[in-house]
Amino acid sequence: MRIDVNVIIKNNNELSEAKYKALKTKNKIEYLEKEYKVSLILGDVLKLKRENDEYLFEMEFVPNKESCGICKLKKENAIIDLKILTDYVVFSSDIIIIKYKVLTTEQDVVLKIEM
After folding, report:
1. FRET partner for 61 with CA separation of 20 to 30 A, picked from 9, 20, 88, 89?
2. Burial group, residue 31, by CB count within 10 angstroms (0-12, 13-18, 19+)
3. What confidence score (pLDDT) does residue 2 get?
4. Domains of the chain, CATH where assigned
5. What local confidence, expressed as pLDDT, does residue 13 receive?
């Protein structure tokens, strides 16, 4: 099913907001964000995948726990491990909010997707 999503990202002290057309299935939401294809996999563990021709980011979010993610630099064929600490995940039929910290880069992030 095609839906409209409003994506708000607070990254440290920077705030961005944009609207996208998304494709929603039972366990996935996909949309194009500038040069990235973004996929949210909705399961027991919420997973985020952002990909373009140069990069692939994969992260999973487990509330109140540390998890691992990756950043793959495609041209260099290099993988950078990311440590993610998820504060919380809110998920309902009309909103997803993920508050997490990328420990590797000291980034505090709040991702909010309104459907």
Report:
1. 20
2. buried
3. 97
4. 2-114 (2.40.128)
5. 87
